[in-house]
From TrEMBL:
N-acetyltransferase domain: residues covered: 31-179
InterPro entries, sorted: Acyl_CoA_acyltransferase, GNAT_dom, N-acetyltransferase
Classification of source organism: Bacteria, Pseudomonadati, Pseudomonadota, Alphaproteobacteria, Hyphomicrobiales
SUPFAM superfamilies, per database record: Acyl-CoA N-acyltransferases (Nat) (SSF55729)
Domain of life of the source: Bacteria
Keyword Transferase carried by entry: yes
Keyword Transmembrane: no
Name this polypeptide is given: N-acetyltransferase
Molecular functions (GO terms): acyltransferase activity, transferring groups other than amino-acyl groups
Length: 200
């Protein structure tokens, strides 16, 4: 799905306030601290709670492998003035033959309400529609997760319904609002321009 330029761990995206980069082994403690908060983990389908010490290491290894294979792109969110401190993550993964990929994200609780998720997601979505053949991006959020619903709306996603989705970390399924974003409909940060991306 993603081309060669994103498949090297020196790849990064720049926004006004943030650097988005590959997760590293050294990020494990920060990731564990943020997603170990039940207010973060329990709003997702895939983050276990409690979050065991080895969970962050396994997660980082898994997403680095997917990034390297080009099957997805998982980028930690870091403030520009603290590029070694991840505060969240945005990702696209699971592209299918119909040209759709799945969008996901989480943000550490101390950073809620400051627009970081929307800023990071716009850069990733701009990149995806600019350098891949994806036609649409799908996503979901719990109906009671007002912050996530608002992020989807700000990004230009359209609600397509409500349904049940597998939630392995929650022990079964969870009810979610379903969303879709088609190429050309995103409320992007950069307008017609592609985001700046860096890779030596």
């Amino acid at each position: 799905m993603f081309p060669e330029i994103t498949r090297d761990d020196v790849f990064r995206l720049e926004t006004e306030r943030l650097w988005l980069r590959w997760p590293r082994a050294a990020d494990a403690d920060e990731i564990r601290q943020h997603v170990g908060d039940p207010d973060v983990a329990l709003m997702t389908a895939s983050i276990p709670h409690p979050y065991a010490p080895h969970d962050a290491d396994a997660f980082i290894a898994s997403v680095r492998e997917e990034n390297g294979a080009g099957g997805g792109l998982h980028l930690v969110i870091t403030p520009k003035n603290r590029p070694n401190e991840p505060i969240g993550l945005v990702s696209l993964h699971g592209a299918d033959r119909r040209g759709a990929a799945t969008f996901g994200f989480w943000l550490g609780k101390p950073y809620w309400g400051q627009g970081y998720t929307t800023e990071a997601a716009r850069a990733l979505i701009d990149l995806a529609f600019g350098i891949t053949s994806l036609d649409r991006i799908v996503s979901s959020a719990r109906p009671d997760n007002r912050s996530s619903l608002h992020v989807h709306e700000k990004l230009g996603f359209h609600r397509t319904g409500r349904g049940m989705r597998p939630a392995p970390a929650r022990g079964g399924e969870m009810e979610v609002e379903l969303f879709e974003l088609k190429r050309g409909e995103a409320h992007t940060l950069f307008g017609a321009r592609r985001p700046r991306f860096f890779s030596p």
